[in-house]
């Protein structure tokens, strides 16, 4: 239990984190990896280079400081981050290391302003925050291990099928290398893939959504080749596309995540942009497998036909649903796209279109795609009077606060 003095100090210094949080966390990660380079085996290197992890941590600590006397307020955010930690293999012994280097970073950045009382208060507060994560993650590790076919940490899986879905997306079908069963999971969850890339000193972790429904005896991940013109910058995605073949083994964590399809009866709208379609494909396949009578509207946005994944699969699943309808938006249709006419609208999914197809304000909406896409969809839905509780979204990488347009 924190003293009132500690609570007062932490809350009074919270605004400093809003102002200098990214500076503090940037120093923190630099210190952390210099002193403990082995932790590079856990963290996503790409998010570090882009500064996303630094910003995410800064705002997480800020939120915790603001609510240090009522941590239950941020419990949903804590659980979301804890799922990512469990999926990546974060353990209790990592938290004291993080705490030591975070306090040192605060002192380095704030200088004389970081008095002994402030550092002591933050040390005590960090202990409480860390314990909240440790307790939740302990339950998550146990749940992952004790489910049928489950395990803790990482397990070897074999690639049994590799299928090109579009010019930029390829699916990998994975089965346990030891021949055991695949555990059940919820439509929309993700796994972590851990790779050793030749010539690299540290392992690479990436989280990929499971793009097929549960109960099929395999995991399917659908990976976009991340490249900028002729210069690939997605080290793991390019490695998977170019070097991982049928029969190869990769390490995988048990499924995790809270962006999952509810099992109710209300209408469901699935809105996906680019590779953000992957968790929605898991949801769509689950609805189709159960021959759900729910009104199901699938809305996909892509740049052009060549980059559009799962077109045939979407059509097949929608045709099997008694109350299903789908729409494909292409930003820049090619001449072949125009000739084939295999899309419904050119441009972006806009407010006017959504207004014409949303009949029930109590419907459930699931959104995944690039950040600008999700921001636009959320704003459109809110303008149409959709309640916040009915709008669900998932993003790839550190958590984002799309309303405040900042990392959290």
From TrEMBL:
The record marks 29 as: Involved in heme-bound ligand stabilization and O-O bond activation. It is an enzyme of class 1 (oxidoreductase). GO terms for biological process: cellular response to nitrosative stress; nitric oxide catabolic process; response to toxic substance. NADP(+) binds at residues 274-279. The keyword DNA-binding does not apply. The active site is at residues 95, 137. CDD domains: flavohem_like_fad_nad_binding, Yhb1-globin-like. Residues 149-408 are annotated as: Reductase. Pfam families: FAD_binding_6, Globin, NAD_binding_1. Its EC number is 1.14.12.17. The keyword NADP applies. This is Flavohemoprotein.
């Amino acid at each position: 239990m924190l003293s009132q003095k500690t609570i007062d100090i932490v809350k009074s210094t919270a605004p400093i984190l809003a102002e200098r949080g990214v500076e503090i966390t940037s120093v923190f990660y630099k210190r952390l990896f210099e002193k403990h380079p082995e932790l590079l085996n856990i963290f996503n290197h790409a998010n570090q280079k882009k500064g996303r992890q630094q910003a995410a941590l800064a705002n997480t600590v800020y939120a915790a400081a603001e609510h240090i006397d009522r941590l239950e307020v941020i419990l949903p955010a804590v659980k979301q981050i804890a799922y990512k930690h469990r999926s990546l293999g974060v353990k209790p012994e990592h938290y004291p290391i993080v705490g030591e280097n975070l306090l040192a970073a605060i002192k380095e950045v704030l200088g004389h302003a970081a008095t002994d009382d402030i550092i002591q208060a933050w040390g005590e507060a960090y202990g409480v925050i860390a314990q909240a994560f440790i307790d939740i993650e302990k339950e998550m590790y146990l749940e992952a291990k004790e489910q049928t076919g489950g395990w803790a940490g990482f397990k070897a899986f074999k690639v049994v099928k590799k299928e090109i879905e579009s010019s930029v997306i390829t699916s990998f079908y994975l089965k346990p290398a030891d021949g055991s069963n695949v555990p059940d999971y919820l439509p929309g969850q993700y796994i972590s893939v851990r790779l050793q890339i030749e010539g690299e000193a540290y392992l690479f972790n990436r989280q990929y959504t499971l793009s097929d429904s549960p109960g099929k005896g395999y995991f399917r991940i659908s990976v976009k080749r991340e490249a900028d013109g002729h210069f690939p910058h997605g080290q793991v995605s390019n490695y998977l596309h170019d070097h991982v073949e049928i029969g190869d083994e990769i390490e995988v964590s048990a499924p995790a995540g809270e962006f999952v399809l509810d099992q109710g009866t209300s209408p469901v709208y699935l809105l996906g942009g680019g590779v953000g379609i992957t968790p929605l494909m898991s949801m769509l396949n689950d609805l189709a497998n159960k021959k759900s009578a729910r009104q199901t509207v699938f809305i996909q946005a892509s740049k052009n036909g060549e980059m559009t994944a799962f077109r045939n699969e979407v059509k097949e699943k929608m045709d099997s649903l008694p109350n299903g309808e789908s729409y494909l938006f292409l930003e820049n249709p090619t001449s072949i796209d125009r000739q084939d006419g295999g899309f419904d609208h050119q441009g972006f999914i806009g407010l006017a279109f959504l207004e014409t197809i949303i009949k029930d304000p109590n419907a459930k909406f699931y959104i995944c795609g690039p950040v600008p896409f999700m921001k636009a969809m959320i704003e459109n839905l809110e303008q149409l009077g959709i309640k916040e509780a009915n709008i669900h979204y998932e993003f790839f990488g550190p958590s984002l606060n799309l309303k405040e347009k900042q990392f959290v």
